[in-house]
Amino acid sequence: xxxxxxxxxxxxxxxxxxxxxxxxxxxxxxxxxxxxxxxxxxxxxxxxxxxxxxxxxxxxxxxxxxxxxxxxxxxxxxxxxxxxxxxxxxxxxxxxxxxxxxxxxxxxxxxxxxxxxxxxxxxxxxxxxxxxxxxxxxxxxxxxxxxxxxxxxxxxxxxxxxxxxxxxxxxxxxxxxxxxxxxxxxxxxxxxxxxxxxxxxxxxxxxxxxxxxxxxxxxxxxxxxxxxxxxxxxxxxxxxxxx
Length: 243
Ligand code: HEC
Ligand code: HEC
What we know:
The protein is mainly alpha-helical. It is about 50% helix and about 0% strand. It has two domains: about 5-20 and about 45-135, Cytochrome Bc1 Complex, Chain D, domain 2; about 150-240, Orthogonal Bundle (Cytochrome Bc1 Complex, Chain D, domain 2).
């Protein structure tokens, strides 16, 4: 990353953080029509090899120099319940998200916009390096001060393990794994994800604001879920790595 780009990025992020301090509470903006496919990332063997060869030590350097750590933490554990943790996330998923933000495929809210600014100076190689760096940590525990509700988590277990045939909802664990560890290629790990981020992103799949999921896999599942079900599932996954 060149230093002139870094200066521009810093200015942009400072501006974004300034405006977002009041936008965070209710930034459920209207979706922006982007058109075209949900993502430009296609999982060819070549693409898989490219991500697999990401350089962890360069990823560590970029995590500090490109300001990722200021929002996602130095070891990928987000300090805010609104923001996703990246520790232990599958490298392919992280790489896909970074590409999707840069190419305007995950866009339309103030939080998306923060990420679009953050990834602006990154090359594909930088993204693979950052993805491998974050994948090198164990799955996250919840940020300090964020708790999960064990009673709510219990309510969610039926949907997660068995799904709901009457609404054609497949069990979450059939894709995300029985330990919330994710799966090939771009199915993310969910264990230890802060509940507020989980709820927000599920609501965005449900109302179509988030539409970078290839084949609408998550939009089709989320569209029939209630707020109470989403909240219960958020607590289930948040508690998976609880100490
Ligand atoms: C100003 C704060 C901020 C900075 C700096 C920042 N992020 Fe983010 N990041 C966020 C927020 C907020 C979200 C959730 C955005 C959304 O809802 O789309 C996010 C989302 C992500 C996601 C998607 C995670 C998921 O589970 O889907 C990835 C990957 C990511 N960031 C990586 C990075 C990397 C790598 C950097 C450094 C180049 C970075 N971020 C810099 C705030 C930030
Ligand atoms: C058919 C496979 C499949 C099933 C079943 C499935 N998911 Fe997903 N899920 C995905 C994929 C693929 C993505 C990544 C989509 C993208 O690129 O945005 C994803 C993304 C997510 C995310 C976003 C994670 C992040 O870090 O932003 C959440 C939350 C989530 N799923 C929750 C659930 C829940 C809860 C269920 C059960 C009700 C479920 N999923 C069932 C495939 C699935």
